[in-house]
């Protein structure tokens, strides 16, 4: 069986193309709608507006420049869209097992009321960022502590560094490695809308001058210009507003996720380094390389030794070998010792009476208590023998106690019987 590559065994919800060279989100089909919304208006503009403006300027070069610039700028926007949606946004590789250095055993109570140890992880831990403590969370899906500003995207099912949001229009998460291209795409789309709107309105003005008519006549002469103006005006509210919002986020060094989640907390932003440095961090720093090599072959994981969890309530050993006592049983060891001695002394007295016959009066419980001394446990009812302490493993203490104390107990009971 041929070894799989990383993208073929990927546990996230991403879609891969070109042998793992391109990575998209699970909603990559939305890109078709985005492409239609970008290419369609530009095609209309070139055919019904820019083509007629070639001869409206003293220099023909200006008229052709309007047409060529619209096509080139549209291609530039599409390239930025492709760079945003087809690259690794900053996915943190998953761990195949939880971090062992964070293991912690904790006791929990099950339905039966018995305490059993269970493996626990601290849900959060603090690390230092710019000299200030920042709390990071543990991700159960990726089995790692997320780096600062990292969050798990529920759509792509990945932890993404400097997670901003998941954009359905580009079909990809926006994170550390593609945020710069996302902002350039949105801002360039805003400029393209302004460009198309402006020259469509200019063409309406040209038609008004040619026909010495009103605006309505010019609009009837070129309905495509009116449609383009209305479309660009509506689009500007979206892409223009988004551009302004992300300018504010970049200036304050925030992400969309942080702005919406922590807006009401009034917490100090430990990542803010000043407006100028914040812009330099986004646009002038080198894009960090991807942590994932999607075309690499999947490495077979070395079998890790299983971690033995000691149960608080072990099953009886049917093989006859003694099992090590659980540490918690030592806390009640003294009580078990007294109960075991109590039970065995009573059995010895009963056997001694039966062997002697009915010559003497039966021994009372008080005589047995005196034989055991004042430090012995009081009389235990017979129900104690059937309690949860009466497991076979716990009563193994009695055999050792009987071996050490039986001769002394027999001599003590015999002397009392003669009296």
Automatic annotation (TrEMBL):
Q: Does the keyword Transmembrane helix apply?
A: yes
Name the top EC class. Answer: transferase
Coiled-coil annotated residue ranges, if any: none
Regions of biased composition (Polar residues) lie at 356-368
Give the Enzyme Commission number. Answer: 2.3.1.225
Instruction: Tell me where on the tree of life, at the top rank, the source sits.
Output: Eukaryota
Q: How does this protein lie in the membrane?
A: Multi-pass membrane protein
Where does the protein principally reside? Answer: membrane
Compartments in which it is found: Endomembrane system
| Entry-linked InterPro entries | Palmitoyltrfase_DHHC, PFA4/ZDH16/20/ERF2-like
Reactions mediated catalytically = L-cysteinyl-[protein] + hexadecanoyl-CoA = S-hexadecanoyl-L-cysteinyl-[protein] + CoA
Note down the stretches annotated as region Disordered: 349-393
**Where in this chain does the record put each Palmitoyltransferase DHHC domain?**
137-261
An example GO CC term for this entry is:
Golgi apparatus
Keywords in UniProt for this one? Acyltransferase, Lipoprotein, Membrane, Palmitate, Transferase, Transmembrane, Transmembrane helix
Q: Which GO terms describe its molecular function?
A: protein-cysteine S-palmitoyltransferase activity
- Of which family is this protein a member? Belongs to the DHHC palmitoyltransferase family.
Q: What is known of its domains?
A: The DHHC domain is required for palmitoyltransferase activity.
| Family matches, as PANTHER family | PALMITOYLTRANSFERASE APP (PTHR22883:SF43), ZINC FINGER DHHC DOMAIN CONTAINING PROTEIN (PTHR22883)
Put simply, this protein is called S-acyltransferase
Q: Can you name the source organism?
A: Arachis hypogaea (Peanut)
What are the top taxonomic ranks of the organism?
Eukaryota, Viridiplantae, Streptophyta, Embryophyta, Tracheophyta
